[in-house]
Amino acid sequence: MADIADADAAWDRQSIRSLFDPATGLLDRRIYEDEDIYQRELERIFARGWNFMCHESQISNPGDYFINYIGEDQVIVVRDTNGQVNVLLNTCRHRGNALCRAEQGNTKSFVCSYHGWNYGLNGDLIGVPGIKNYYRDDFDKKQWGLAKAAQVDSYLGFYFATLDADAPSLHDFLGDTGRTGLGMVASQGDIVVLEGIQKNVIDCNWKIAVDNLFDWYHVMYSHASAGSSGFLNLSEILHPNNQLVMLGDYGHAISGPGIPKEMQDQIDLMSDEERAELSKTLPIRLRPRMAKELMGSTGVRSMGHPNIFPNLWVTIGGMQICLRLPRGPHATELWWFTVVPKDMPPEGRQQVLRTAVHLFGPAGLLEQDDGENWSQSTRASRGVASRKLGHTLQMGLGHDHVSTDPNGQTGIDTCINEHGQRWFYRSWTEWLAAESWADLSATRSMPPKEIV
Amino acid sequence: MADIADADAAWDRQSIRSLFDPATGLLDRRIYEDEDIYQRELERIFARGWNFMCHESQISNPGDYFINYIGEDQVIVVRDTNGQVNVLLNTCRHRGNALCRAEQGNTKSFVCSYHGWNYGLNGDLIGVPGIKNYYRDDFDKKQWGLAKAAQVDSYLGFYFATLDADAPSLHDFLGDTGRTGLGMVASQGDIVVLEGIQKNVIDCNWKIAVDNLFDWYHVMYSHASAGSSGFLNLSEILHPNNQLVMLGDYGHAISGPGIPKEMQDQIDLMSDEERAELSKTLPIRLRPRMAKELMGSTGVRSMGHPNIFPNLWVTIGGMQICLRLPRGPHATELWWFTVVPKDMPPEGRQQVLRTAVHLFGPAGLLEQDDGENWSQSTRASRGVASRKLGHTLQMGLGHDHVSTDPNGQTGIDTCINEHGQRWFYRSWTEWLAAESWADLSATRSMPPKEIV
Amino acid sequence: MADIADADAAWDRQSIRSLFDPATGLLDRRIYEDEDIYQRELERIFARGWNFMCHESQISNPGDYFINYIGEDQVIVVRDTNGQVNVLLNTCRHRGNALCRAEQGNTKSFVCSYHGWNYGLNGDLIGVPGIKNYYRDDFDKKQWGLAKAAQVDSYLGFYFATLDADAPSLHDFLGDTGRTGLGMVASQGDIVVLEGIQKNVIDCNWKIAVDNLFDWYHVMYSHASAGSSGFLNLSEILHPNNQLVMLGDYGHAISGPGIPKEMQDQIDLMSDEERAELSKTLPIRLRPRMAKELMGSTGVRSMGHPNIFPNLWVTIGGMQICLRLPRGPHATELWWFTVVPKDMPPEGRQQVLRTAVHLFGPAGLLEQDDGENWSQSTRASRGVASRKLGHTLQMGLGHDHVSTDPNGQTGIDTCINEHGQRWFYRSWTEWLAAESWADLSATRSMPPKEIV
Amino acid sequence: MEALKAKDNGLTAAKLNPGERMLIQHEAEHFLYEEAALLDARRYRDWLALIAEDMHYWMPIRRTVTQSDIDKEFTKIGDMSFFDDTREILEMRVKKLEAGSAWSEDPPSRSRHFVTNVRILDVAGDEITAESSFYLYRTRLNTEVDVWTGRRIDGLRRSGESFLLFKRHMFLDQTLIRSTNMSTLF
Amino acid sequence: MEALKAKDNGLTAAKLNPGERMLIQHEAEHFLYEEAALLDARRYRDWLALIAEDMHYWMPIRRTVTQSDIDKEFTKIGDMSFFDDTREILEMRVKKLEAGSAWSEDPPSRSRHFVTNVRILDVAGDEITAESSFYLYRTRLNTEVDVWTGRRIDGLRRSGESFLLFKRHMFLDQTLIRSTNMSTLF
Amino acid sequence: MEALKAKDNGLTAAKLNPGERMLIQHEAEHFLYEEAALLDARRYRDWLALIAEDMHYWMPIRRTVTQSDIDKEFTKIGDMSFFDDTREILEMRVKKLEAGSAWSEDPPSRSRHFVTNVRILDVAGDEITAESSFYLYRTRLNTEVDVWTGRRIDGLRRSGESFLLFKRHMFLDQTLIRSTNMSTLF
Ligand code: FES
Ligand code: FES
Ligand code: FES
Ligand SMILES: [Fe+3]
Ligand SMILES: [Fe+3]
Ligand SMILES: [Fe+3]
What we know:
The complex is a heterohexamer, with three copies of chain A (452 residues) and three copies of chain D (186 residues). With 452 residues, chain A is an alpha+beta fold. Helices cover 30% and strands 22% of the residues of chain A. In chain A, the strands form five sheets. In chain A, strands 13, 14, 15, 16, 17, 18, 19, 20, 22 and 23 form a ten-stranded antiparallel beta sheet that branches. In chain A, strands 6-5-4-7 form a four-stranded antiparallel beta sheet, with no helix packed on it. The N terminus of chain A is likely disordered. In chain D, strand 4 and strand 5 form a beta hairpin. The longest helix of chain D has 23 residues. Classes of the chains: A alpha+beta (452), D alpha+beta (186). At the A-B interface, helix 1 and helix 3 of A face helix 1, helix 6, helix 13 and strand 21 of B.
C-alpha cells in the first residue's frame, strides 16, 4: 500500500522513461539505489514477466521439486503425478508459513509444519486437520489451495512461470531472440542439468550483473589475470571485431563473438562428423547441423551471450546458465546451472566440469574479478553527488546496421559495442513505466531494423 | 514527523479497519511487514496501552530496579524509598544518554555517565554538577526530572505502566478477562519471580508470536516431536474438545483447555487438601479454593492461555509469563519470567524449574519448534505476491455461543478454534485506527455476548 | 528524486528552523534519527560546505593520493605533476566503478579496473581502450573526465574542497574563527601528519560527536577514570573558570580553557626561549610569538577546541585533528590525524606519540569513555516517547558577554558553558533550511556581539 | 598420578610436571574434539554413548550487570537457566531430533563446534576437569547464522581407553540470545 | 608404525597409543599451522611448495535438504563443486594472484585461517589423514567481511622432515555463499 | 636446548626435533591459554603479574593498500598505532578498569580470547617467540558485538616454572575499526 502509493507519487511514466535516453546512451544512476524503483521492479518486471524456474531434468520424477524465486517471492516448482509442472507460492494459505525449506527434494505432498495442512502437488488443499471437528465442516478447501503462477510453460525443456494472467504465451514472450538463446543450450543435444547449483550473493544491483553479460568490452581488462594464469587465452575467444548482436522483442538480446557469415556458410556445408573433427583444433566447439533449426541462420552464428529478459544469462556457448535474483537494490543472488548432453562421454563431461568450475562461479578464475566492480559501482550510486553522474552507454551508438537474413532473423555484425546494454535499459524503462501487459504491448519499442 | 505524517497519509481509519474482516476471518498480511503500520503500533498501542513492567518480587527493596520497554522506549522500573514504584524513561533529560545500562540492580540514585546529573529514585533531578557556577543558578531542576510514565499501577503484584494520561485505570483496562488472566498466576499462592529471565530474539512480527498463544490447533502438529521425546504427553494436556475461550474488553482474551462445568462443580466441593491429593494423579494441578475469587466461576475453569493485550502471555497454568517486545516489523524479543509460590517446598520448586527450563524458552523441547514457523510466515509477507494472500482465521467462526455465568462472566465452551486470534486482530485494528483513548473508548467493539 | 522530494514535503524552512530554539537552548531530538533530515544534511551541509581533505604533507609528491569523503561521496585527493591538488569523485564516468580502492598511495594515473579507462591526475580522461575501433572515434573524452570538486583550496597546508561552485572562498568560509582554529595547529611550526590515521566507527549521529568537542562539562565525570589511571591530571587541564569561547561565521567555533588576558599579556612579553623554558614547568606548552599572527590576540589565548564547521575538530592544542564522517543517521566514522613539527627532536616526537596513542583514538584512556554515551543518546532518539524529549543546551544562556579585542576579534571569557553547542546547532538549522549559498548568506545569523 | 586441586576459574593452583600435563592435555583435547565431531556430524546416538549417567549439562543465564553486581552476572544452580539437563533429558533431546517431526531441525542445521584454549584445571583420580573456550557456529536454511561463544567447564572420567563426560557447564558470553532457538547441542 | 584405518567422518576406529598419537598430532598441527600462516602471509609460492603433485583440492556444494535427503547434502565427485583443483590449477590460481592484474585481490584481501579441533583419522605408511574445523575470516577494503566455516579432511604425506599436502577436501557449513567471490585459498 | 633463529613471519627456519618442539609448544600454549583466561575472567591484576618489566605491547594501524604498496600495509614503530604500551601504561589501563568510574566498562564487557595456530618461531636461551592467530570476541550490554582478528607475535621469557610476557605485537586484520572503542585488552 504505502510503498506503491509512494512510488506512484514519485515516479510517473515520464520520469521513468527519462531514466535512460536511447538517443545518447545516458543512464540515470538512481536506478541502482532507489528503493521505490526497486519495489516497482518487483511488481512490474518480475511478477509480470516470465521467470526461469528450472530445467525439466531437475524435476524429472513425480514429486520432484525445486525452490526458486519470482523476484523475492519464493516458489515451489514441482512435477505432479500427471507429469505436469506446477509453480506454487511457497506460503501456506492458513497463516503464511513456508511449506518447503529445503532447496530441492521429492515429496508426495506439501505438509505445513505449523498446523499440518496438506497440499497436493498441484497446490490443491487436500488435508486440513480437524476440518470436521474444529472447522465444523464449514471450510471450503477448494478456495484455499496454494497460490499458483498464472501461467507455466516450457520451451526446449526450460520451465518458466509468470504471475500475470495477461502475459503473452511463453513462445511469444521469448520471441525469436529468446528462443534462439535457449536454442543455444539445446543445440548441444539432449541435455541435463548437473547436480549442484552454485549460489552466491554479490553486493550489487541485479541490473549491473545483467548488463555485464552483454559487455565484451570489459573482458580484456577486467579479466587480464585469468589470461595470465594460463587457464585460458582471452584473445582466442574474444574476437573484438567479429561481434554479433541480436536485439529481441520485450528486451531479450544476444551479444558477443559471432562467426562471420562467410565462415558459417562453409560450416553449413559440413557434416556433424566433420564439425566434430574440426572442433578439436578450435577453441570452441562447432554446433551440429540441427542447431540451425533451433537458432536460425543468423542466431547459429552467435558465440555470445543471450539474456532472456530480465535475468537469465546463457553462457559459454550454452554450457551454463546463470540466474540473477534481486535481493533489494543493493544485492543479487547468482545461481549457476551447468548442463551437459545426456550422452556425453565421461571425458567430455570432465572437460565441461573443468571449465564450469574453474571459469565461472564465485571461485572461478574469470568470475572472481567481476563482483567487486559491480559492487563498487552500486555502492557509489548512493553518494548524493555521485548518483547524479549518469553512466554512458554510447559505444557504437548510431554506427551500426541491423541486417535481416532471408528467414527474417535480424542481427548486427559489428565490433565490440554497447548495443545490448542500451536495448536492455530501454526495454527496462518501458516495462517499468507500463501499467499492465496491455500497456506494455502498446507502448514498447520494437527491435530496431535499420540504424542502431 | 516524517514517519507519522507519511503513515497518516497512507493509512486512514477505513484502510486500517479493513486490515481484518471479523465477518470472514480474513487478515491482511501487510500488517506483518509495513513500516508505517509498525510506527503506528508503537504510538497507538504500546505508548497508549498498559504495559507489563515486572512483578513486585523483582524489585522488593528500595532502590531495586529492573529495565523493561514500552514498545522500543526503554524504561527503568524502580522502587523508591517510600516503597512506591516508578517507571522512568531511561534517557537523561540533558543530552539523552541512558541512565541504566544493566538489566537490573539496586541503586541509591541514577547518575548519568555523561555529565553526572543525578536523579532520585522517583525521577526528580536532584543533582546537577555546576548548577551554581556553570549554570549561574539559572536552571530549574524541577522541570528536568526524568520523564515518567503517565500512570503506574499494580494488580496482584504485577506492575504495569502507560505513557498515556487518558488511559483508564489499570483495573478498568484489565477488565474481568485481564484480571482473570493475572489471577491464574496469583491463584498459585503468594508468588515470586525466580532469578533469571530468559531473553531471546525471533525474526518474526510480534503479533505472530502473540496470536500463537491462542493457537491450540498447532500443538499436535508443530510439537509432535516434543511428544516423541517422551518429555510430555501432548494429548493429556490438549483436550481438543474441551476448550474454553474468554474474550475481554480492549482485546484481552483467554483460550485453551477448560475444565467442563460439571467437573468444576465437583471440584468446587473439594477442600484444598483433597484437591492437592487428587492433583497427584492428574497431569495438571487443581487450583485451590481461593482461585475462584481471583478468576471467577468461569475463569477458574480455564487451563488455557491468557493474553493481557497487547503482549503479555500467561502460560502453563500461570507458572510462567512471557512478554513479547516489538523490535521492528520483523523481530520480536521474548522474555520469560518464571514464578513459584514463596512457600513452595524444594521438590515442588525443582519440578517447576524442570518444566520451565525444558518446555519453553529457546532451548525448550516444545518452544524450539515455534520460532521458525513464525519467522517464515513473517518473511513471506515481504514478497509482493505473497503479501497479497490474506491469512484465514475462520475456524469456528459463527459456530459458537457465548454463555454468561450467574456472576456475569462470559465464556465459550467449544472445541479447538480461532476465536482468540480473531478477537485479538479485531481489537488491534480498533486500537490502531483510534486517534485517542476517547476515540478508542467510543469506537471499540464490545466482547460478543451471543453468537461468535 | 524520491528521497529529496519526500524530504521537501516533510521539512520546510519553518519546521527545520524550529528544531533548535536559540532562545531557550531546547533541541529537538529527531535531528539524530530522522532519515530525511540526514539526506538533507548530505545535500545541504556536506555537498555545499568546505570539507577537510588532508594536509599537504600527506600528498607531498606528484601522484600521491589520499581517499576521503564529502559526506558519503568518496573522493580522491591527489597532487598532480604540476603540484596542483585535485579532488575527484572516486567513480568512473563510464559505469561508475571506483577508481581507487586503497586508502592512500601514489600513482601515475587512475586506471579503472572494469574497462580500463584511464584518467589523468587532474581527472581528465586520457585513455579509452578501443576509442577508435569500438567507439569509431565517436566519443568526446573531454566530456567524460572525473567529476571534480567545484573548488579546492588550502589554508596553512590544510586542503579543503566543496562541491558547490557558489560557495565563498575557503578564506571567507573559514572566517576569523576557522582560521584561528587551523592556526592553532600551524602555530606549532612547520608541521607534518604522521603515518597512520586511526579510523573507527561509533554508533552515533555525527552531530553528537561534533558537539561533544565543545563540551568541557563532561570531562570531569565521563573521564574520571582516565584521571584515576594516573595518565593525566584532569584538573590541571580543565580550568573550569577560565574558559574562552569564540563563535564564528558559518558555524565555526572554539571552546575550552583559555589563558586569562592578564596572563597572556605577560606571556606576550616573553621571548620564544623564555616560553619554552617556562613550558617545562607547565602542563601545557606555551605558543611561540608567531602564534599571535595566526590566531589573533584573543585566539592565541585559547587552549580549547576549534571546530571547523561542520566536522573537523582540532584537539590537544593542535597536536591532533579529528574528522567525523557521517555514515547514516546512526553511525559516524572518526579519523584521527596526528601532527608534529617537522623539526621536532625525537624525544618531543616520542612525547607526542605517547599522548596521541594513549589519550585519544578508540583505545585511548580518555576517548574510550565517550563512544558509549554518544551511542546510547543516539539510540534512545529512536523511541517514540524518548524522541519527543528535547535536549537542553541552556548552560550559561544569557549570562555572558562577548568582548571584542582591539583587533576586532571576539571572545567570551567565562566558565564552563554550552555556548559552542548552541552556536553549532543554530548554524546547523540555518544551513539545513537554506536552499542555496545565496539563501544561506542572506539568512544566516551573524555571530553575537553582545550578550550571549 | 595424584589428585590435584585447582580453582574453577583461573590459574591451575597445583602443578603437574609439563610432560605429564602435556599427555593429559592431549587426551582431553582428543576426546573433546571427537565429541564435538560427533555433534557436528549429527551422530547424536554415538554422542550419547559418551555421556555418563550422572551428567550435569548446565547453561545458566548471563545478565548485563554493573561492576558492583558482578557476582550476579550468572544465575546460580536452582535459578532459571537455558539448560539444566540430566542424561535422561539429553536423551529426550536426541529422541526429539530422531523423531522425524522436529521441524526446527528439518532441514537440519549445520553446526561447527570450535573448541580452543583447553586447560586442564584439575586431575583427581580418574576424573579430569578441563576448561575451554567454545565458539559454536550454526547456520540453517540459506541465510540464518547463529554464533554462541563462551567458556566451558567439562568433567571427564576415564572409562576404558576413553572418557565419559559427566559434567558440562557452559558460560555464555551473550546475555540476550539473538537466535530463534537453541535447538543445537553445545 | 603400522597402518591404521578410520572412518572418514567419526571416531578414530583404530587406536594409537596416546603417546604415539600425541606426537603425530603435534606434527600434523605444526604443519597445518605453518601452511595456514603462509596463506595468511600471502606467500603463495612458498605455499605451493607444500603441495604434492597429486593434490586434490575439492570443495563440493552443500545444499539445504530435508533429513530424508541428507545423503544429498553435499554434491559428489563428478558433480558441480566450488573447487575441484589439481596442483596445476592451484598453480594457475597463484599465477593469477601474482599477475599484477587480479583486481579482486588488489588491494589484497586480509585472511586469517583458524584451524582447530585437529584429529588424526588415519595413519597409513607415510600418509596421515587429519580432520579439522576451519574458520576462514577474510576482510577486504575497509568494510567487507566474509566468514567461511566447515570441516576439512587433509592428506599429509611425509617428505623429508616435513609433509606434502596431497588432499584437501573442504566441507563448508554454508549453502548459499554470502560473498562476492571466493578469491581466497582455503 | 640451543638458541634457534627464525624469520618473524613464516616457516621456522631452524629445526627442533619434533619431540622437543612438542614440549615447548605445550608450555607456550599452556601459558597463553592461562593468560587469556585471566583476561576473560577480568582478573587484570593477576594478568599484570604475568607481564615483564620490559613489555612492549604494540598494535600498529593496518591500511588498505595496493599490492605495490604492500610494505606500507602496517605502520612502523615510531608511526601512529592503536597500542604502543609499556608495562607502566598497561598498569594504567588496569587502574582505569579498577577505578569504579570506567563507564565504558561498567557494565563490564564480556570477552573471549580464542588463541589458535600457535607456532614456535624462535627459541633463544630462556626466551621463546610464538606466533598465533587470535580471534577476540567481545559483547557488551545486550546487543553490542565486536570481533577483532589477527596475528600475534608474543615473546615469552622463562621465570620460575612459568613465563613472563615481554612482547606482544598484534597485527589486526581490520583496517577500519568497526567498534565504538577498544577498551578490551588483546
Ligand atoms: S500456517 Fe500452514 S497449516 Fe497453519
Ligand atoms: S547527558 Fe546526562 S548528564 Fe548530560
Ligand atoms: S566502469 Fe570504468 S572503464 Fe568502464
Ligand atoms: Fe566478467
Ligand atoms: Fe507452540
Ligand atoms: Fe570526552
